[in-house]
Specification:
With 92 residues, the protein is an alpha+beta fold. The protein has three helices and three strands, in the order βαββαα. The chain has a three-stranded antiparallel beta sheet, with helices on one face. Helix 1 packs across helix 2 and helix 1 packs across helix 3.
């Protein structure tokens, strides 16, 4: 099943690499595609994985668009900054 998420805070290829690496580690994920320009993450996984994927995106600092407000949104921006930096420099 294809899960599509419009997410906040994606800015570059570093963000995309961090998202890709983290989501591929989720059990039963068979494919990940990140469109930086559109802010869309598409994940091929079982139907039951949707909530796990949404939670993982939030943990990384890329919450589903409109789902984080106030302090939670601010915290997500900070996490995405760190995640982005890791993705840029940790190209393993």
């Amino acid at each position: 099943m294809l899960h599509r998420f419009e997410v906040a805070n994606i800015k570059c290829g570093g963000c995309a690499r961090s998202i890709d690496k983290a989501l591929r580690a989720v059990p039963r994920v068979t494919g990940v595609e990140v469109d930086v320009e559109k802010g869309v993450v598409s994940v091929q996984a079982g139907e039951e994985a949707r909530e796990t994927l949404r939670t993982e995106l939030l943990r990384l600092g890329y919450p589903e668009a409109g789902s984080a407000e106030g302090l939670q949104a601010l915290a997500a921006k900070g996490k995405s900054f760190v995640s982005c930096a890791i993705g840029r420099f940790g190209k393993d």
